[in-house]
Amino acid sequence: MPKGPRGEKRPADAIGRAVMIGKIATGEIEDDRAELSSAAAQLGSKGGKARAKAISPERRAEIAREAAKARWKD
Predict the structure, then answer these.
(1) Which residue has the higher pLDDT, 5 or 16?
(2) For residues 56 and 14, what is the distance between their CA atoms, to the nearest angstrom?
(3) What's the pLDDT score for residue 69?
């Protein structure tokens, strides 16, 4: 059985995963993944706010313009 990024054992095939999800949904087995949270994910939520406070409104507008150009270019 393959291991996930945190070492948890998960089924490799689609049917096995579907059965496991069904068992978790009905409460037959308990999913322990919700208890695990990575430190990087917690820091990531703080990073955007800190960056927004650190840069000027003009620079934020410039970044937004560049992003819109990149998104809508042909």
Answers:
(1) 16
(2) 48
(3) 94
Evaluate whether 11 touches 20 at the Cβ level (below 8 Å). Answer: yes
**CA 15 – CA 35 distance, rounded (Å):** 25
Report the predicted TM-score, pTM, of the whole model to 2 decimal places: 0.37
Q: Which two tokens stand for residue 21?
A: 């999800």
Task: Please state, in angstroms and rounded to a whole number, the distance separating the CA atoms of residues 22 and 16.
Answer: 10
The C-alpha atoms of residue 29 and residue 10 are separated, in whole angstroms, by 13
CB atoms within 10 A of CB 11: 14
Spatial distance between the Cα atoms of 60 and 25, rounded to a whole number of angstroms: 43
Q: First and final CA of the chain: distance in angstroms?
A: 45
Q: What are the tens digits of pLDDT across the range 10-30?
A: 777 888 889 988 988 898 988
The helix (run of H) or strand (run of E) holding residue 73 is: none
